[in-house]
Amino acid sequence: MNDSNTLASISDGRLYDLKDFVKADAGGCQGCSACCCGVGELVKLTPFDTYEMTRGLGAAFDDLLVDHLELRTFDKITLPYLKMIGSDERCSFLSEEGRCTIHAYRPNICRLFPLGRVYEEKDFKYFLQVDACVKPNLKRVKVEQWIGIEDYEKNKAFLSAWHNCLKALAFRFKFVRDADELKAANDYLLETFYRIAVKEGEDFYAAFFEALDGAKDRLGIIV
């Protein structure tokens, strides 16, 4: 998100860094799962999100596409999103008791909520989405603690690179009119980044940046 008018309309007007305190802590949610329903179009998954899910669940990416994820296309780019199910459009990973069954390896956007990111070239900061959480009187918490992500600097470098990759790809696809060419490019995107092969002794981030180097020429983008 980069539009200053949009940001001002949904935030408290501040941008937060990792060490800042922000009123975002819902105190364990106490059985509330309002933010886990009807958000299918919002929870766009990154390659790291799906990698963590497959590792945590011991399932392949294609297995998750059967019941828990779905492919959606925006700006001609096809990516996986969380699947919503039932009349209340609840997250497919939500238990009958309204608890997240993948909390330890939930998507990054779920970790952030009610925070969001605003990107600034190769950096980003956080903002608080006012009134996004239905719980009253959210408590102050340090951004770093709230996100709770391991290898934060590596994760941040990945998120910035992936954001720029998608932005470049959206621009590139504006000029692609051939349906077969688009399908081939999107199939390559899913195969390369969402079915990513991480070698023994290698971490996800090293595998991602190696794949990104090879994908630039194949997809015709500059990141």
Description:
The chain has a two-stranded antiparallel ribbon with strand order 1-8. A two-stranded antiparallel sheet has the order 2-3. A two-stranded antiparallel ribbon has the order 4-5. It contains 8 helices and 8 strands. The longest helix has 22 residues, at 152-173. The chain is globular and about 50 Å long. The chain has one domain. The mean pLDDT is 92. A hairpin with a 2-residue loop joins strand 2 (69-74) and strand 3 (77-82). It is an alpha+beta fold. Helix 6 (152-173) runs parallel beside helix 8 (204-219) and helix 7 (179-194) packs antiparallel against helix 8. The chain starts with a helix and ends with a helix. InterPro entries: Puta_zinc/iron-chelating_dom. Pfam families: CxxCxxCC.
Question: What are the salient characteristics of this protein?
Answer:
223 residues; alpha+beta; two-stranded antiparallel ribbon; 8 strands
Strand count, sense and barrel status of the largest sheet are: 2 strands, antiparallel
Instruction: Work out the number of β strands.
Output: 8
Helix/strand class: alpha+beta
Count, helices: 8
Fraction of residues in H or I helices? 25-40%
The strand order across the widest sheet is 1-8
Distance between the termini: 18 Å
Morphology call: globular
Question: Structurally, how many domains make up the residues?
Answer: 1
Spans of at least 5 consecutive residues with low confidence: none
Rg measurement, Å: 18 Å
Sequence of secondary-structure elements: HEHHEEEEHEEEHHHH
**Which range does the strand content fall in?**
15-25%
- What is the mean pLDDT? 92
